[in-house]
Amino acid sequence: MSTSLVASLSLRLELKKQGAVPLFLQLYGGLRAAILAGHLEGGTRLPPTRQLAAELAISRKTVVKAFEQLIAEGYLEGKVGSGTYVARVLPEEMLQVSRPASSAAFSTPSPKHIPHLSAWGTSLANRDTGSIAGGNTMQAFSPGIPALDEFPYRLWSRLASHSWRLLKGNQLSYSDPLGYWPLREAIASYLRAVRGMDCEPEQVIIMTGMPQTLDLVSKLVLNLGETALVEDPSLPEVRQVLKDAGAAVVPVAVDQHGLSVERLANDEQSGQHGRLVYVTPSHQYPLGVTLSLSRRLALLRWAARTGAWILEDDYDSEYRYEGRPLAALQGLDHAGCVLYMGTFSKVLFPALRLSYLVVPAASVDLFARGRAALAREAPVMEQVVLTEFFTEGHFARHLRRMNGIYQERQAILIEAVRQRLAGELEIKPATTGLHVMGWLCPGVDDRHVWQLSMARGVDVPPLSAHTLCPQPRGGLVLGYACVSPPEIRAGVDQLALALEAMGQERKGR
Question: How large is the greatest C-alpha to C-alpha distance in the chain, in angstroms?
Fold first, then answer.
């Protein structure tokens, strides 16, 4: 290996060790850019991972992760006993198609130039696609993204390789729309042991994310124009999917004890009947409160009396930092009205796109027919790998390890806010989940704070973007899972500068 190539790479790869982007992603991006720019030609042998790590003063694990990602995407090729080489045929070349010369100046026509759209299509075309409710990049303090730099990539890769050998020919055909049976067994066993649920594998349906689950549920339990009751505040995407399904979305207030079940009873007396109520009882999003046991029981009694459905979204309760969580609503349900929704996006990684829905025993056939009618089954390969991850004990070990990491990161965030933003942002520890709420001083515009923070590379979604009804005080949703301790402190510094800039703006008026 030429020392000149190693030196050239070390000069070309500018890694920011205190940056918001993990080092392995920076290295991956730098090498990919060098390959695409022609600085690393096809067939070039790269330095050994240990040598490159020493030259860049980073861990060999970081280099290995970057190399593995580039190999998986086709930019590098590993040759046993020989080393790692730049691929002679790149993914971009394989996917390239010829275009007319005029395509270089292509611009997206406005919706008015599209011949005909449905009401939903028109709404979608005119909708602001810039999500204010949280980004999907790994930066401080994007909520809902786990620590992807801590995911066991090598283990997952080994399980994937082994899983391919487990597959039989018929399993590569169209798969069971309800999901891979061994995975459904593993999930049911896990939920019985950890969440106190009463369910069998037949009740578990594998889905591909919250939007698909909401789509299935709304199609089966709501007629056009019927009422869906949703926590306020809540995730904007939930309200939007229900609206797109034709539901009349009605907000229900949330306080320190969770959803206001008393409001449901008052609406019932006034003649308003909700057919579906969406709740996040274990860790309310975004406020982080827990639905009290008395309200859980009252909610179940209300649903049983009115014939309504409860959609329980248990999106991140796997992470608990003190005490034991209250039993899931599903485990307390004797009337068969609770639909339980879980996901692996927060536990493992979002790109996995695997979630699940647990339905009451009496409704299994109905939801099975609905799932089959949608004909959008989850990819079987990912299900097989996840099953191996469960059955070999890796899932439980991963949860224990990440629980410690997230508890530490939350503590660092809270301490940094208290030191740097005392009097400007009120923050309290959360006993579960991957985010905390930061409360601004009365009168401070949380959307403007978010805009000023985004300009400084910090994503702090505003509470007002999650609400339908006005809130007495602005707040920020702070996700701490996907950022390292140095990045947390740097992010708080940038947030402080944003608040200082806002204060100067107000003084200048």
Answer: 80
